[in-house]
Design brief:
GO terms for molecular function: tRNA-uracil-4 sulfurtransferase activity. Its EC number is 2.8.1.4. It is found in: Cytoplasm. Keywords: ATP-binding, Cytoplasm, Nucleotide-binding, RNA-binding, Thiamine biosynthesis, Transferase, tRNA-binding. ATP binds at residues 185-186, 210-211, 267, 289, 298. The structure is a single chain. By secondary structure, the chain is of the alpha/beta class. It has 14 helices and 15 strands. It has helices spanning 16-35, 60-67, 87-102, 124-138, 191-200, 219-236, 247-256, 262-280, 300-307, 323-332, 336-339, 346-349, 361-369, 375-384, and strands spanning 4-9, 40-46, 49-55, 73-83, 107-115, 142-144, 151-157, 160-164, 168-169, 181-185, 205-212, 239-245, 286-287, 314-315, 387-391. The strands form two sheets. Strands 1, 2, 3, 4, 5, 6, 7, 8 and 9 form a nine-stranded mixed sheet that branches. A six-stranded mixed sheet has the order 14-13-10-11-12-15. Helix 4 (124-138) links the parallel strand 5 (107-115) and strand 6. Helix 5 runs parallel beside helix 6 (219-236). It is elongated, with a radius of gyration of 27 Å. Bound molecules: adenosine-5'-triphosphate (ATP) and magnesium ion.
């Protein structure tokens, strides 16, 4: 029944010149996701509206699924587009639409007309009243309710005419590329994929870094991270995944530093490495899946001690989320099932029995002096041996 979709997007705060930046980014991303579907589509922009029109046959559900992954889209409205052959022809198309969509359903409705084409010979109020009357005549189970209707029938009078009544929710947010690029610290857990998704949803392109520690972490643990990056990239577009061998650094910290400080010092080195990668690749911030109190390394004191080595902003979108809420999002974006596969990540191999939960930054800095002999070369080697995986 439908050959086209009207795309609703958030317009608040997006005015003037920015509006074009926003719309261009939105349309670019729509083209990308639609190119992965079976159909051929044209994107038509006119007077503050974006339409997707299918040429020939296409898979309706697949198309909706694709558009639901485009940040910035607030609603997807399957729309019947028809040429303007006057009111009588419009009225027939509308009755046919109501028949196919709702048949003899008992429901309330109202007609809402937008008359953009001022040459259409009737005012929008008149069109509302006339069409409403004809629908009432034809469908005895339907009633008008102008305040809380079950169905709002939208009629858009332009150079052609659009008729729609269903709005399928989109993800909201801002189109990718409208807010620069950031580096996600991506582990195999539940949290970091969600964190990446959330920041990308605000228009930020994502790259990622994964620290592995062979042979303590397996090839399968790494593959799991690659799989997670691929799942996240369905929303965020291509991700460049940097895989950093962290084994030597981790062993060295283990050898030299007090064991109750291991995790914090390790995390500080992860942040330092991620930050250098970020700066080298034009990323403006770091992203982690940290959340206050979740584990010993995420108490407020621990977060402060980790943050101490960062000069770039660190985005922690899950900071005040309960685990349950994070899980809900991870299920929604389809990363949960992969995240709970039981492969060790490098933090679980070297955890102390009793890690400090209230680290003091001055003491941690002092402990790191114990590493001064070799840590710089080790960092150099970690950068030099990085593996880059392009996730598309
Ligand atoms: P997650 O579920 O995201 O793994 P977590 O609850 O297991 O998080 P931690 O292991 O303390 O928490 O890690 C906190 C954050 O540090 C992660 O969300 C992630 O951003 C980053 N991180 C942890 N381990 C790694 C790793 N091996 N590679 C890259 N980033 C990591
Ligand atoms: Mg983890």
């Amino acid at each position: 029944m439908f050959q086209a979709f009207l795309i609703k997007y958030g317009e608040i705060g997006v005015k003037g010149k920015n509006r074009y930046v926003f719309e261009n980014a939105l349309v670019d991303r729509m083209k990308e996701v639609l190119a992965e579907t079976d159909g051929t589509f044209h994107i038509i922009r006119e007077q503050g509206r974006i339409y997707v029109e299918a040429e020939g046959s296409f898979d309706y559900d697949e198309t909706i699924e694709a558009l639901k992954r485009v940040f910035g889209i607030v609603g997807i409205c399957p729309v019947v587009l028809t040429e303007d052959h006057g009111f009588e022809a419009l009225s027939e198309t509308v009755l046919d639409y109501m028949q196919k969509m709702y048949g003899d359903k008992t429901m309330t409705f109202k007609v809402m007309t937008r008359r953009v084409n001022k040459r259409f010979p009737m005012e929008s109020m008149e069109v509302n009243a006339e069409l409403g009357g004809r629908i009432l005549d034809q469908f005895p189970n339907m009633k008008v309710d102008v305040h809380h209707p079950d169905v709002i029938l939208h009629v858009e009078l332009r150079h052609n005419i659009g008729i729609y009544s269903e709005v399928i929710p989109g993800p909201g947010g801002m189109p990718l590329g409208t807010n620069g690029r950031s580096m996600l610290l991506l582990s195999g857990g539940i949290d970091s994929p969600v964190a990446g998704y959330m920041v990308a949803k605000r228009g930020v392109y994502i790259d990622a870094v994964y620290f592995h520690a062979p042979p303590y972490t397996s090839e399968r643990a790494k593959q799991k991270v690659v799989d997670l990056a691929r799942l996240v990239s369905r929303y965020t577009g291509p991700i460049r995944l940097h895989v950093i061998n962290f084994t030597d650094i981790q062993m060295y910290i283990y050898e030299k530093c007090p064991h109750d400080e291991l995790t914090i010092i390790m995390r500080r080195y992860m942040m330092r490495i991620a930050q250098k990668l970020a700066i080298d690749t034009g990323c403006l911030a770091l992203i982690t899946g940290e959340s206050i109190g979740q584990v010993a390394s995420q108490t407020v004191q621990s977060l402060a001690a980790t943050n101490d080595v960062c000069t770039l902003p660190v985005f922690r979108p899950l900071i005040a989320f309960d685990k349950e809420d994070i899980v809900t999002i991870s299920k929604k974006i389809n990363t949960y099932e992969t995240s709970i596969l039981p492969y060790e990540d490098c933090c679980t191999t070297f955890v102390a029995k009793h890690p400090v939960t209230k680290p003091r930054v001055d003491l941690i800095r002092k402990s790191e002096i114990l590493l001064q002999e070799e840590i710089d070369q080790m960092m150099e080697r970690a950068f030099a041996t990085e593996e880059i995986i392009e996730i598309k």
